[in-house]
């Protein structure tokens, strides 16, 4: 429900593409600082990037904990991960989808805010596909670069290898810029 999302309204259409981060709720990473994921670090980096740019939008999508499986199921997935199961297979072994998040509500909110062209901060190709409707146009992908740690390195590798996330890691697991710049109408 749109009323669940805090918004800072503004009038008119922006003169230049807006820096946008559509962030999925992650209580463990965003609130408790879990090192198992890079969510909290991505959230902090997005806020810093928006501040540095001078303006932008951070849309925090609630109800998307654990790629949409919920906090309770995420804890069960964590237990499987403790036994060596990767993040994707943990969801599947619980009979849940690898990623059930939808971005249509976020796209509608951005469109209602008057955003047309955006510079999207994301590594997730599914997010691009979910946001390009409703008159929105992604003119640039801004990589979400974070420093991996021993607790999330395999998680990041799984997201890259099995889920198509646009993450570049060197041999030591250090996340690097992938050199992606402005692309007209980025496709998933």
From TrEMBL:
One of its GO terms (cellular component) is cytosol. One of its GO terms (biological process) is riboflavin biosynthetic process. Residues 12-143 form the GTP cyclohydrolase II domain. Gene3D superfamilies: GTP cyclohydrolase II (3.40.50.10990). Keywords: GTP-binding, Hydrolase, Metal-binding, Nucleotide-binding, Riboflavin biosynthesis, Zinc. Pfam families: GTP_cyclohydro2. Pathway: Cofactor biosynthesis; riboflavin biosynthesis; 2-hydroxy-3-oxobutyl phosphate from D-ribulose 5-phosphate: step 1/1; Cofactor biosynthesis; riboflavin biosynthesis; 5-amino-6-(D-ribitylamino)uracil from GTP: step 1/4. GO terms for molecular function: 3,4-dihydroxy-2-butanone-4-phosphate synthase activity; GTP binding; GTP cyclohydrolase II activity; metal ion binding. Its cofactor is Zn(2+). It catalyses: GTP + 4 H2O = 2,5-diamino-6-hydroxy-4-(5-phosphoribosylamino)-pyrimidine + formate + 2 phosphate + 3 H(+). SUPFAM superfamilies: RibA-like. In the N-terminal section; belongs to the DHBP synthase family. This is Gtp cyclohydrolase ii-dihydroxy-2-butanone 4-phosphate synthase. It comes from Chrysochromulina tobinii.
């Amino acid at each position: 429900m749109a009323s669940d999302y805090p918004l800072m309204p503004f009038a008119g259409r922006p003169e230049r593409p807006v820096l946008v981060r559509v962030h999925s709720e992650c209580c463990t990473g965003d609130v408790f600082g879990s090192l198992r994921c890079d969510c909290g670090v991505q959230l902090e980096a997005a806020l810093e990037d928006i501040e540095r740019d001078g303006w932008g939008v951070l849309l925090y999508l609630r109800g998307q904990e654990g790629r949409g499986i919920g906090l309770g199921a995420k804890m069960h997935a964590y237990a499987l991960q403790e036994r060596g199961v990767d993040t994707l297979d943990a969801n599947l072994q619980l009979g849940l989808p690898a990623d059930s998040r939808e971005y249509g509500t976020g796209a509608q909110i951005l469109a209602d805010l008057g955003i047309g062209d955006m510079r999207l901060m994301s590594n997730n190709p599914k997010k691009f596909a979910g946001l390009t409707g409703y008159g929105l146009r992604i003119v640039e992908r801004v990589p979400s670069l974070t420093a991996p740690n021993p607790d999330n390195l395999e998680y990041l590798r799984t997201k890259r290898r099995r889920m198509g996330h646009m993450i570049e890691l060197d041999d030591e697991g250090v996340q690097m810029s992938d050199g992606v710049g402005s692309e007209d109408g980025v496709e998933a």
